[in-house]
Amino acid sequence: MDKSRLSMIELDDLFMQAAETERRLPAAFRRQKLASWPEYVQEWSAYGWDDFVAPIGKASPHQVTQYERALILGIEHMNKDDRRLVWAVAHSAAFRERGPAWTKIGKMLGNRDGRTVKRMYQDALVRLYYKIPIESDDEILGDLFS
Description:
Layout: H1 8-24, H2 61-77, H3 80-93, H4 102-108, H5 114-131, H6 137-145
């Protein structure tokens, strides 16, 4: 980890990128090969009948390292409810331009308002921010003068 403490925005970005990285990782279970034909339209003018959807690229080593860093921060410094909330928000925002789906997460948490969920998320990040230990001055000064 870096010598300095992460800011709130950096913590938010770290978890958002970690959720995207988790979706880029290979599946835990490999799908079995199927013995059926893919679905297609049976018309002579059906060539190109569906839009092309680009596959998600694979995760880089740097992204995997940041993903592990987010996992360690979540496991060591967050309680179960905060961890669940932060990962739900991060996964709802993964590969989405509009950000997290606050209302949908509110319904998952028991019919709460989206604004309440957003405040709970920010509070969880604040608690995480203050639980991350700062390196002592002796270690920092030792690095400067050695």
